[in-house]
Amino acid sequence: MNAHSSLVEQSMPRFDLIVIGSGPSGRRAAIQAAKLGKQVLVVERNPRVGGVSVHTGTIPSKALRETVLNLTGWRERGFYGSAYRVKKDISAADLWQRGAKILEHEVDVLEHQFARNRVTTVQGEARFLSPNRIELIRSREAEPEHYEADFFVIACGTRPYRPTHVPFDGKTVFDSDEILKLETLPRSLTVVGAGVIGVEYATIFSALEIAVTLVEPRASFLDFIDRELIEEFMHELRDRNVSLRLGSEVKAVEFDGAGRPVCRIASGRDVTSDMLLYAAGRMGATEGLNLAAAGLETDHRGRLTVDAKTLQTKVPHIYAAGDVIGFPSLASTSMEQGRLAACHAFGLAPQAAPEHFPYGIYAVPEMSTVGMSEEEVIQRKIPYECGIARFRETSRGHIMGLQSGMMKMIFSKKTRRLLGVHIIGEGATELIHIGQAVMALKGTIDYFMESTFNYPTLAEAYKIASLDAWNRAFAPTAAAPEVPDMPEAIEDAA
Questions:
Q1: Is 124 annotated as a binding residue?
Q2: 200 annotated as ligand-binding
């Protein structure tokens, strides 16, 4: 090694932790490590921090949903009729104004968090040179910069999957990032892919009274959600004239004589619309990281495999968190993954993650679920009973003009424990946390029977659903099994 190289080695910045990506998992890992007194560097490829969550994913799509519901008067139509509108003529520009303000706020908050915790941030493309060293390229003209660290967290997120047979043009054929740059609203839209992203966008545009066709190669969708909830959801979509093409494999996307995208289905039944959104999967954004130099490799979708408890990759000092490690790919779980990775790296032993965490599907109507579905309970052969509450049965539901929405609760007949809560309708993603808390504390049907809920609220649905289950399985007239003393003698429901 010559004298110049030796000097470079000595002057190379070294950190306790380098985080690649500033989305939910990256920011939480960085801030957790900084609070432990560590020197942290966050590398973000985009001009501003926040990652996919802030710029093209979670925040923009939820802001779009809220904007659509407000401008269309969706929530008031139960009282004023389906023709009711807050704004008669809604343009694409109307949809993005709220999102732009929210984005600025989110970025400002995140930059302040990093500054307050003395986290160093740099913008540029990172690539590994060795397991402990990265190269940072800020621009084509700039000289590469080198950084070393004792630990790394790869939190680079994902990008839309763009197959070669789909002619993306950013005008009539979009991926889920490009749809947020839409300049005009179509009269009809085809959405390919009935995953969480596809379902959310399909229903949001349907609320704008755009004719939507949802195409999915599988015979079912959102299989991790209780089937009864999905049946209710499908009924609502069909009632709004959303066309569901399940079991329809897309062979090609072409253009007709008028320049409109035509979705060629294997069955021979094509779908033509003004615009097409392809939302069938995402890829880990790892292609430029040169992971081989760090001793890592990805699967066919660019995702990394980690230890479920520690978030370590096969190279122990390199962790990965967030969407880049795959399921469940939720902002909420990604945050916890980032925190757990940082804690483990620096010798803390945080409590194990709870067994159950909530899912939120921000469709129209929204859905949320925690715990076991009825299908899972049956598979595990647990004696159970369900209780159902319709939002229209609550006084609050009447006040809000709700004509749909339901809550389903599942209880063990042996221990009376709450096994799962599944909600569709207004406020579902907020209401679910009551059920989550009771499940985490191993609560039983008795909690809901004996507790008082604010009146009038949609939370009353918990009492209605529990009473429904009680009358079916636990009432004195029912042949209920003997219940052990509580709480010490309560067995695990499984």
A1: no
A2: yes
Residue 435 assigned to a binding site:
no
Is 199 a known ligand-binding residue? yes
- Return the amino acid letter for 136: L
User: Which of 246, 238, 239, 189 is closest to 215 using CA atoms?
Assistant: 246
Q: What is the pTM of this model?
A: 0.90
Q: Tell me yes or no: is domain 173-280 CATH 3.30.365.10.
A: no
195 among annotated binding-site residues: yes
261 with 275: CB under 8 angstroms? yes
Give the strand pairing for 14-20 and 145-154. Answer: parallel
Where does 193-347 have alpha helices with state H?
196-207, 227-239, 331-345
Q: What is the pLDDT of residues 443-473, one digit of tens each?
A: 999 999 999 999 999 999 999 999 999 999 8
Give domain limits for the chain. Answer: 3-160+283-345, 173-280, 359-474
359-474 belongs to which homologous superfamily?
FAD/NAD-linked reductase, C-terminal dimerisation domain (3.30.390.30)
Q: How far is CA 262 from CA 169, 174, 198, 249, in A?
A: 14, 13, 18, 13
Q: Is residue 194 marked as binding? A: yes
Residue 142 region by backbone torsions, left for phi larger than 0, else alpha for psi between -120 and 50, else beta:
beta
Q: How far apart, in whole angstroms, are the C-alpha atoms of residue 228 and residue 393?
A: 19
- pLDDT tens digit string along 15-57? 999 999 999 999 999 999 999 999 999 999 999 999 999 999 9
Gyration radius of the chain over CA positions = 25
**Amino acid identity for residue 63 in this structure:** A
pLDDT digits (tens, 9 = 90+) for 161-201: 999 999 999 999 999 999 998 999 999 999 999 999 999 99
Q: Check whether 322 is labelled as a binding-site residue.
A: no
What is d(CA 335, CA 340) in angstroms, rounded to the nearest whole number?
9
CATH fold for the domain made of 3-160+283-345: FAD/NAD(P)-binding domain (3.50.50)
For residue 252, the one-letter residue type is: A
- Domain pair 3-160+283-345 / 173-280, same fold: yes
CA-nearest of 204, 202, 251 to 222 is: 202
| C-beta neighbour count of 239 within 10 angstroms | 9
* Rounded Cα distance, 243 and 270, in Å: 13
Q: Is 196 within any annotated ligand binding site?
A: yes
Query: Which residues face 387 on adjacent strands?
Result: 409
Please check if 468 is assigned to a binding site: no
Task: Report helix angle 24-35 to 92-116, nearest 10.
Answer: 20
Helices 460-469 and 428-440, packing angle to 10 deg:
60
